[in-house]
Amino acid sequence: MEAEQPGAEIQRLQLCINDLVGILALPATWVRGEPPAIVESLLDSLMRMVHLDLVYLRLRDPVGDAPRELVRFDRWRQDAPRPQEVGQLLSPWLDADPQAWPARLAIGGTVGGADLAILPQRLGLHGEIGLLVAGAARAGFPRETERLLISVMANQATVGLQGARHLSEQKRVAEELDRRVARRTAELAAANAELRRQMAERRQAEEALAANERNLDQIINSIPGLVWSTRTDGTAEFFNQRYLDYVGRLSGAMQGWGWAAAVHPNDLPGLIDAWRSIRAQGRSGEAEARLRRFDGAYRRFLLRVNPLHDEEGAVVRWFGINTDIEDWKEAQDELRDTQAELARVTRVMTMGQLTASIAHEINQPLSGIMTNASTCLRMLGADPPNVAGALETARRTIRDGKRASDVIARLRDLFGKRGTAAEAVDLNRATEEVIALTSTELQRCGVSLRMELADDLPPVTGDRVQLQQVILNLVLNAAEAMRDVDERQRELRIATGRLEAGGVCLAVTDSGVGFDPAAVETLFNPFYTTKSDGMGIGLSVSRSIVQNHQGRLWAEPNEGAGATFRLSLPCRDGSPGGMAAAAGQAGHP
Ligand code: ADP
């Protein structure tokens, strides 16, 4: 250290103290803690106070947005090396202990380079903030006061930068917090919006559901029928408005078995039985019953019920609909009446064909009466009168008179106007009566008749006159089919029998012209006729009569010439005469 004058020494120390005060005041200018401002002012103050040729600052980690490397030069303002070049030059010692640094370094290289005495100073106890390097070309650098100033400056810088780092960290944390809060707020807002949307959607779904229900309600109430549902035990739980309006009762009164009060008392036991058996079978079913209207009138209904199953197939509920069939039933009745009237008219029409037979039928007992009456007179006029013989002939007269009135009664039956009956009919007797009416006609036509009526034929239920009309039609048609047949015998065979499957049947076989097998069904069409004077309604009327008796009427061409018309009817004991019976060929007469 060079010897100094005490006056100069004192002045230098005073300057140093001024600088120190200036340095200590520096942090006051850093209150805003902007790292670039801190490092800039630090370097500028150092250059100014210590008269350095070089100050180099290097930060270990970024502090805010301050540059990592910063350099100030005094001597080479024109051609100063860039901070990175200085950094590169110093790099071998950057991490080393300041003690290990060389005392001097040539900085600036070829371009106006200088040989500088350097003083490295750690920022932070272990250099964790960075490094400050001061350099000066002059001899004696650094003096003690300069060392002091630089190290105090380094301390101040450390404290300032640490503060700035904390501040910037705080700022970063605050910003991060802000960012997170903003993100969370946005998420919450989105979640809220989503929730609101879902509640919209939910309200829409609820509205749609309500609309659906209203729609379903409207449909159920506008179905032209009485709709209901029951639990599995058969007790009712729902009735549509139309049902309640029809019976004129409130739903509460109809619940459980309350509905039964609206069923006609005569129909109720049968209906309850049917309902029980439908439930026992677990399958759809139907029944008929009369239901009382609110005004007390009864109307006939067809009750149809369907089971509703769960996924396992178990019945969980029953749905039913009652359809008003009163008008339809009335129409059916009217149709039956019309058919009966048509049948009667066609019977009357056949009367013309039968005049000879009818006259014969009546003439026979009448001539008997005439003969017996004159015999009786003769016996009484004899001397002595033959009273015993007269009595006998008078009795015969009465018998013949009765026979004549029977014939007339039968004719009135057959051709008069009467209602439809459902009585036990012996098909054999009915056939014989028809033949009695037609025998003369058959003889006239040269037809030979063969009757093969089965013994112990069970009775059928029905209208004797209508069934006789059918037989009469078949017999007259057979006779007509044989009218022009000359080359073979005109043979008519009438047979009755039992069917194996139950029921009875009757067959009328002729040896006539027959029919085209392809047209077998057209024969039964109304107004189909091949005759010049035919009406073509005989067979269609006959078929509807047989069908009304739950029977069947059909035609078959014979193996040889002619045709056979067969009818089957159920027996009075209930054995079938319809399809099942007709299918069974065995037992055919
Ligand atoms: P119609 O006797 O007035 O013609 P039907 O309905 O009784 O009316 O008969 C319709 C048609 O069926 C007859 O015209 C005839 O062609 C045919 N038909 C009926 N019975 C016989 C039969 N026994 N043999 C052949 N054809 C028949």
TrEMBL record:
Keywords: ATP-binding, Coiled coil, Kinase, Nucleotide-binding, Phosphoprotein, Transferase, Two-component regulatory system. It catalyses: ATP + protein L-histidine = ADP + protein N-phospho-L-histidine. Transmembrane segments: none annotated. This is histidine kinase. The keyword Nucleotide-binding applies. Gene3D superfamilies: 1.10.287.130, Histidine kinase-like ATPase, C-terminal domain, PAS domain. It comes from Azospirillum rugosum. InterPro entries: HATPase_C_sf (IPR036890), HATPase_dom (IPR003594), His_kinase_dom (IPR005467), HisK_dim/P_dom (IPR003661), HisK_dim/P_sf (IPR036097), PAC (IPR001610), PAS (IPR000014), PAS-assoc_C (IPR000700). The keyword Transferase applies. Residues 174-222 form a coiled coil. SMART domains: HATPase_c, HisKA, PAC, PAS. It is an enzyme of class 2 (transferase). Residues 285-337 form the PAC domain. Residues 357-573 form the Histidine kinase domain. Its EC number is 2.7.13.3.
